[in-house]
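debug: dumping io for the single-chain case to check the tokenizer round-trip. Nothing else runs in this session.
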Amino acid sequence: MGVGRSYCVALVGLNGYIVEVEADIGQTLPNFVILGLPDAALNEAKERIRSAAQNSGIPLSRRKITANLIPASLPKRGSGFDLAITMAVLRAADDIREIGGTVFIAELGLDGRLRPVRGILPAVMAAVQAGYPDVVVADANAEEAALVPGAKVRGYKTLARLAFDFGADPKDLALDYDPVDADVPADDAGHVPLMPDLCDVSGQGEARRALEVAAAGGHHMLLTGPPGAGKTMLAERLPGLLPDLADTAAMEVTAIHSLAAVQSTAVRLIRRPPFENPHHSATSAAIIGGGSGLPRPGAASRAHRGVLFLDEASNLGHTTLWTQPLLGQTAPRSS
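debug: decoded output
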């Protein structure tokens, strides 16, 4: 037995960093230690990995297992490291062949299923940019990961099938287990909702002209008037005047929305400028973003390259308003 190695990606916001996973099997009493600043979710991976490997037909060694995540000074958060640690441990036990530079990003279920993780698009982008184009993800994340140019993506449903492709002995593997993933309805895959169109508006000549100028020049707007004057109706139609996003901008927007979603639903790049309309009672965290561990983008970030509409902006707290790039109700661009 030697030291097994595999690779994963640690996300800090939208920035991804390659993490090398080392695994060593010692000669002392059974134990499982993860080093390298893991958070609580990552520390719990020890039990998930043991159960998943056992139920897949490739039980882990009963000796002390030490997994080290390099660089050790970079905080590691989330469950996306499960698969990389498992493959490094299996390689250390000589249960699979050499892994090479393959990057593994997936969460493990106790039954050996590979589960999708949040932020797969920016993670794969970081791996490709760092020179690691070979990526293994959960089958539910495969279509989204394949959006990254230059990525060689392989999607798997189970750990047993993955281990078999990496040279594990097939006689003990649970290769007959084929879970049915019913989390995402197939009917909505790739569906692009229709956007409200300015041609639906009758009259409002000055407001229509202001919308066109704002869309053409990327300006902010302030819509004022009595209730029922049509301010919200006009603002909702501003994204329809904006052109489709270029490749780089579309990748940025899709990556942000990948971080915001727990279940991967992206099967194509987001080409239309997004529109976000948070309620005036929304908290600063909901609008700005944040959270412990892996932060979630707020409405302002999700509106990147699109429109952030602050309806009834005067009712927002002054702390929230001071953090926004405008003091109005509508912004054609948000960054």
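debug: round-trip ok. The longest helix spans residues 247-260.
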